[in-house]
Design brief:
With 243 residues, the protein is mostly beta strands. It has two helices and 18 strands. The chain is globular, with a radius of gyration of 20 Å.
């Protein structure tokens, strides 16, 4: 214990220093971006291969936020049961596959890189780059399998016991979910290897009740892509706002 006359007790409290908007934390395997009313940790999906309960939901998502909650999969059979917020979810033969353990990763001064495989014959290299309004994802995909992939944003409360003013939109290349407290919009801005307009579209996933840690009913905006055999690059912008 410090004595009563120690100089520590005479020190005057000072305000916290202003934080940089972007904070690469290379030894913690994350990049934290401060947006003013919320902060987001972008991660490469690095964790022990030994496994424990819900390890993918805890460590495998692209982003974890201080205001947006996270979802936990109910099953791997349907998108609405899997509730894959902040994941690139591949649907193959009726099953949903997401990022688990990554093969390579790096936290840089501008974002996060990871190389991972959701399914045999599919390799994904994902680069996450934070921006003032959200972040950009660039996925370089090499696939031996034709399938669908859904690039998903944050889960948004759609109300249950109280109205929250929920509304949503699905467009040709975007999906939006919004309530009176927050907004998330996911937009496909470029795709190489998915050349026609019907090979990408906005899709709103109405997640099963009680798949989210905070909200009983949520919706997840996403962009659906058709994955062809060979190589392709997908670029997706995720906007996230706390009102």
């Amino acid at each position: 214990m410090l004595p009563d006359d120690h100089s520590f007790w005479e020190a005057k409290a000072a305000p916290l220093p202003k934080l940089d908007a972007g904070c690469p934390m290379k030894y913690a395997d994350m990049y934290v971006q401060h947006y003013g009313r919320h902060s987001t940790a972008f991660v490469p999906g690095v964790y022990s291969p030994n496994g424990h309960g819900q390890i993918v939901a805890k460590y495998g998502k692209f982003a974890y936020d201080t205001k947006f909650s996270i979802s936990v999969a109910k099953s791997c059979y349907e998108l609405h049961e899997n509730a894959p917020d902040n994941m690139l979810a591949f649907v193959i033969d009726g099953y949903v596959y997401v990022r688990r353990i990554c093969e390579q990763s790096e936290v840089t001064d501008t974002g996060v890189y990871s190389k991972w495989s959701p399914y045999p014959g599919i390799t994904v290299e994902t680069t996450l780059t934070p921006s003032p309004s959200g972040h950009t994802r660039v996925h370089q995909i090499t696939s031996d399998v034709e399938c669908a992939a859904y690039d998903c944003g944050f889960a948004v409360d759609r109300g249950d016991f109280a109205a929250v003013g929920f509304q949503s939109e699905e467009g040709a290349d975007y999906a939006l979910a919004e309530n009176m407290y927050c907004l998330c919009k996911v937009t496909a801005v470029n795709s190489s290897g998915t050349e026609t307009e019907d090979e990408k579209k906005g899709h709103l996933i109405v997640a099963d009740p009680n798949t989210n840690l905070l909200y009983t009913k949520t919706a997840i905006p996403s962009v659906a892509y058709k994955i062809q055999k060979g190589s392709q690059i997908l670029t997706t912008i995720v906007e996230a706002k706390i009102k």
